[in-house]
Amino acid sequence: MIPRYQTILFVILLVASIIMGSVLWNLRERAHQRLLQGENSAPTQAPQVTQAERAILMVANDADNSMLERMLSLPLPQNPEARARAVLGKLLDFYAAPDATHPVPGGANAIAEVFLVPIAGAQGKALQDGPELAVVNLTGAFAAGHPSGLETETLTVLSICATLHANLPRVTEVRFLVDGQPRDTLAGHADLRRTYLATEAGPAEGAHQ
Predict the structure, then answer these.
(1) What is the pLDDT of residues 129-167, one digit of tens each?
(2) What residue ranges in 62-189 does DSSP mark as E strands?
(3) What's the start-to-end Cα distance of the chain, in Å?
(4) Among 49, 61, 116, 132, which residue has the least CB neighbours within 10 Å?
(5) What's the CA gap between 190 and 28, in Å, rounded?
(6) Which residues are CB-neighbours of 104 under 8 A, at least 6 positions away?
(7) Which helix (H) or strand (E) is 152 found in, with range?
């Protein structure tokens, strides 16, 4: 005959097991419902595609050390810094193409970031909708792979400055960094320590394409 205390202990353990099983089942169902609610709350609409806008590229030409104005229709972001990076990326894609008039490897990935900084006026205060300084952060790989030579390096720098000003007229000055750090030259010649005036970087007699 089973002792009475063992019977009571067995009943207690059986009840505890049933309760624990019920709790675990409820927790599982709640987690499943939360998962379904998360899936149902996910957006079902496709993200909006940025509309194409006119972009102007000042494309360098090594044949006569000139820059040609080329107009394109590109999907451009509204954020000015992202827009600047997109336009410069397209310019450098042209230079990385097999038939480039100014062959330079790297393409759009050469532009790490572009920062726009308001320029202080005569009284030391930045004016709303006033001129801006663009800080172009190039990648170290782009600088390392850029062809060396004063003319070819200068054309790259000036075409970047002119392209920025053509698409963001408020950009009047441009500075360059490489991997986020100041650098003496692009590939041994073009000075990257100075501030470039974007308004003076355009072609003297630019052709339109």
Answers:
(1) 899 999 999 999 999 999 999 999 999 999 999 999 999
(2) 66-75, 111-118, 132-138, 171-178
(3) 105
(4) 49
(5) 66
(6) 92, 95, 96, 145, 146, 147, 152, 156
(7) helix 150-167
Domain map of the chain by residue range?
1-45, 52-200
E-strand ranges in the chain read 52-61, 66-75, 111-118, 132-138, 171-178, 196-197
Phi, psi of 178 (to 5 degrees): -130, 120
Q: How far apart are CA 137 and CA 147, in angstroms?
A: 18
Return d(Cα 138, Cα 95) in angstroms, integer.
Answer: 15
Count of CA atoms in the C-beta half-sphere (13 A) of 155: 23
- 52-61 and 66-75 as β-strands: parallel, antiparallel, unpaired? antiparallel
What's the confidence (pLDDT) of residue 178? 98
CA distance linking residue 150 with residue 141, whole number of Å: 19
Task: Give exposure, 57-68, as e/b (b: 16+ Cβ within 10 Å).
Answer: bbbbbbeeebbb
Q: How far apart are CA 72 and CA 58, in angstroms?
A: 11
Residue 61 three-state SS: strand
Distance (Å, whole) CA 192 – CA 157: 9
Burial class (CB in 10 A: 0-12, 13-18, 19+), 121: exposed
Can you tell me the distance from the alpha carbon of 63 to that of 101, in angstroms, rounded to the nearest whole number?
7
Q: What is the pLDDT of residue 123?
A: 66
How far is residue 91's CA from residue 111's CA, in Å, rounded to a whole number?
Answer: 10
